[in-house]
């Protein structure tokens, strides 16, 4: 299993390019199931989760042609299999995103239930309830969701909880349903908006994406598109936190500052100077130690849960005490015991972590438990005394493209060992 060896102490300095957003590329790739003619998708990050999604779609009959710049052509005229098997869904929960498109276009889907995962139970009841309201006949048996429908029809769906992939699944399904679907309490994440824009470019009629009410008027068919995925706001935020923690100066390019206002506000509060342009952000910490910040995670536009572990790592070495409350997932504190092994002073009270910043962390062998927890550990290693070994980094490879290359480019001492 691959590991990262990171020697802490270097301030990060320089420029890097941000990749396309994993969480937008995944639903956009799934949406190619809906189109009758080929789609061309660009700015897709080269990540394990993307490979998993492409193998899943490939099994269903989508043919992919990928050029040297990783532009992807997806031909979806010959789909013959409507199954997402357990072996694939268990490695990536986002596989559930094929459910809506399959039942909407082909009237059938057989998709494994994702089951639990490291950060909580993460049920998919809202995906199922929404499709049922649209007329799908759904059975859950033997760990699989079987969905059937002659043609889905429009419905007004009120989602009890804000769910990102749930909103995306239902928006895709509604695009081919008969009549108007209204999604209430919809997720407002930029990745939902990106998917909506992609669907619109395929011929879908969608209004209100980016607000909590999305109205979709179904059409008879969708055709292929040429679409470029938006930049990854979580990758952007992760490198900016790395610069803040190490007292460095980093410019991130090919990104969009408007996607991460909540994160930038916290980094300003921590003492960073931030300059933003059209497609870049520069953060300068001038060698200073960050100040502790209080965080409360919530759906967009509030502070993202996917940046929580990184800010925990920052608070661990910040001046003062930071309170960090996680409200989206019930078990997203797996990185805390690892950070404690590196000398962090963190106390957990329910879903709040109280972090008393220490001057220095010490290197220790630590283990990645999920994607963003791993990012938190890598950031902590960048400021720890000695060489930290981060084990099980396949979690990181699911979501950060060439992380060791990008960090090396910024002056970190990091290498991968097999
Ligand atoms: C997506 C992101 C993930 C991010 C999360 C929250 C992708 C591929 N993944 O995950 O990186 O951390 O949003 O921003 O985009 N819930 C239910 N019933 C449901 C669906 C969800 O109770 O049917 C609950 C979940 O358990 C969780 C909350 O709703 O507590 C939010 O989950 P959700 O937004 O669905 O997360 P994902 O879409 O899986």
UniProtKB/TrEMBL annotation:
The keyword ATP-binding does not apply. Pathway: Cell wall biogenesis; peptidoglycan biosynthesis. Its EC number is 2.5.1.7. The modification 2-(S-cysteinyl)pyruvic acid O-phosphothioketal is found at residue 117. It catalyses: phosphoenolpyruvate + UDP-N-acetyl-alpha-D-glucosamine = UDP-N-acetyl-3-O-(1-carboxyvinyl)-alpha-D-glucosamine + phosphate. UDP-N-acetyl-alpha-D-glucosamine binds at residues 93, 306, 328. It is an enzyme of class 2 (transferase). The active site is at residue 117. It comes from the Bacteria. Residues 7-407 form the Enolpyruvate transferase domain. One of its GO terms (molecular function) is UDP-N-acetylglucosamine 1-carboxyvinyltransferase activity. Phosphoenolpyruvate binds at residues 22-23. Keywords: Cell cycle, Cell division, Cell shape, Cell wall biogenesis/degradation, Cytoplasm, Peptidoglycan synthesis, Pyruvate, Transferase. InterPro entries: Enolpyruvate_Tfrase_dom, Enolpyruvate_Tfrase_sf, MurA_subfamily, RNA3'P_cycl/enolpyr_Trfase_a/b, UDP_GlcNAc_COvinyl_MurA. It is found in: Cytoplasm. The keyword Heme does not apply. Belongs to the EPSP synthase family. MurA subfamily. Cell wall formation. Adds enolpyruvyl to UDP-N-acetylglucosamine. This is UDP-N-acetylglucosamine 1-carboxyvinyltransferase. It comes from Candidatus Marithioploca araucensis.
């Amino acid at each position: 299993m691959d590991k990262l060896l990171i020697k802490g102490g270097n301030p990060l300095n320089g420029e890097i390019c941000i990749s396309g957003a994993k969480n937008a590329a995944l639903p956009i790739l799934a949406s190619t199931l809906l189109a009758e003619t080929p789609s061309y998708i660009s700015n897709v990050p080269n990540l394990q989760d993307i490979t998993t999604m492409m193998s899943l779609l490939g099994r269903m009959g989508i043919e992919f042609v990928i050029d040297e710049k990783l532009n992807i052509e997806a031909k979806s005229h010959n789909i013959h299999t409507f199954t997402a098997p357990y072996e694939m869904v268990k490695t990536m929960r986002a596989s559930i995103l094929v459910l809506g498109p399959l039942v909407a276009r082909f009237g059938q889907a057989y998709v494994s239930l994702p089951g639990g995962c490291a950060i909580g139970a993460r049920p998919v009841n809202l995906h199922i309830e929404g499709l049922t309201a649209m007329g799908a006949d759904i059975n859950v048996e033997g760990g699989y969701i079987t969905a059937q429908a002659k043609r889905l029809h429009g419905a007004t769906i009120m989602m009890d909880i804000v769910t990102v992939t749930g909103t995306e699944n239902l928006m895709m399904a509604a695009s081919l349903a008969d009549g108007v679907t209204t999604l209430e309490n919809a997720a407002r994440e930029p990745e939902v908006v990106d998917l909506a824009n992609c669907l619109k470019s395929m011929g879908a009629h969608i209004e209100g994406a980016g607000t909590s009410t999305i109205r979709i008027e179904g059409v008879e068919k969708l055709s292929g598109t040429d679409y470029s995925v938006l930049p990854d706001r979580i990758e952007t935020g992760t490198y900016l936190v790395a610069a803040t923690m190490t007292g460095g100066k980093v410019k991130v390019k090919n990104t969009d500052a408007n996607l991460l206002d909540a994160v930038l506000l916290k980094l300003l509060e921590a003492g960073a100077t931030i300059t933003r342009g059209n497609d870049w952000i520069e953060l300068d910490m001038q060698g200073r130690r960050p100040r502790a910040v209080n965080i409360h995670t919530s759906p967009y536009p509030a502070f993202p849960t996917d940046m929580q572990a990184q800010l925990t790592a920052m608070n661990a070495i910040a001046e003062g005490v930071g309170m960090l409350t996680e409200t989206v997932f019930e078990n997203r504190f797996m990185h805390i015991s690892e950070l404690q092994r590196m000398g962090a002073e963190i106390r957990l009270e329910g879903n709040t972590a109280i972090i008393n910043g220490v001057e220095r962390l010490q290197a220790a062998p630590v283990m990645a438990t999920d994607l963003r927890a791993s990012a938190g550990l890598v950031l902590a290693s960048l400021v720890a005394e000695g060489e930290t070994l981060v084990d099980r980094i396949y979690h990181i490879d699911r979501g950060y493209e060439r992380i060791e290359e990008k960090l090396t480019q910024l002056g970190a001492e990091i290498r991968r060992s097999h």
